[in-house]
């Protein structure tokens, strides 16, 4: 597209670098910013720079944090003996939004994926093992995507935790609540039947 | 959603203020920025502040511009005697991208819309009339949306230009190129038939 101004062209180019934003959307965002008060645009910009500069990684669980330790790790009311292992911070936000988990987290930073050159060394696995040993953890919940890479990762971690006398569980897999059976994919449905649960388990406690 | 960090929460809130960006998209953009180098995020922010601070309105045509006059108004190769009247700068970008217009523009800043409290005084109409008188314009092309408000605006401006001995035209209305007749709306199709053109006119010159 031909822009009447270099300033607009540059701003559109910057927005276009963001994921999922094409040229037309970028232009719409730029024209929106132009209609705002100057101090609002400054606020917007300062917030982004401050975010990037001041964000830290929690030294315990590798969650993103404002401080050395994240709000979950420093919260004395949470159950320290349960650690939920997740791939990334988005998963923590999703689980926290359900309000149904009161334990701790551990962010792996991804899953084992040889095809992408990601082995256990690239992930925060050894830190997890150390943590489990030191903190006297009783249960490790694997909240990892049910993909081949995810299952490989779960298998690897469970082998590393072997012999430490810890309960290892994964989040339940099966048909979604409110989902219709006829639209559920075959693999999920087949596994839901073979891994059927006692009726009592589906009653919410 | 529950965010683990106030910095992330603030950044998500800022992105959410932009049009068409919801909470999940905002979070995705924030996590993307966090993965970028610090100087890239600074570049992004500086570009936005610079844009907002330094952008000017062209004093001749009200296009957005880096300088007092925009690149189109200062371009000596363009045909000064033809002015294309548009609602906003997006229309200029769209027409310029076609590469088929070599004249000048005039940005109204909207259309007459009594229901939204927008009369001719809120638009750059009197500046257009002045400009036409001073510059010896020969043709005014109305590239205004074919809506009731748009047609009202065209009618008003054409009345104001009355007696100045200027050709007034509007961009052609009818079925889209490549569009299928059966999916064209009834009003467009009915008007396309009553306002049919000589066959020679549709051959591209």
Assembly category: homodimer
Can you count the beta strands of chain A?
A: 6
What is the CATH first-level class name of the largest domain in chain A?
A: Alpha Beta
Number of helices of chain A: 7
Instruction: Please compute the radius of gyration of chain A using only Cα atoms.
Output: 22 Å
Kindly name the structural category of chain A: alpha/beta
**Element order of chain A: H for helix, E for strand:** HHHEEEHEHEHEH
Question: What spatial order of strands do you see in the largest sheet of chain A?
Answer: 4-3-5-6
The overall average pLDDT of chain A, rounded, is 90
What characteristics describe this protein?
Dna Topoisomerase Vi A Subunit, Chain: A, domain 2, homodimer, 7 helices, globular, 205 residues, alpha/beta, two-stranded antiparallel sheet, 4-stranded parallel beta sheet, Helicase, Ruva Protein, domain 3, 3 domains
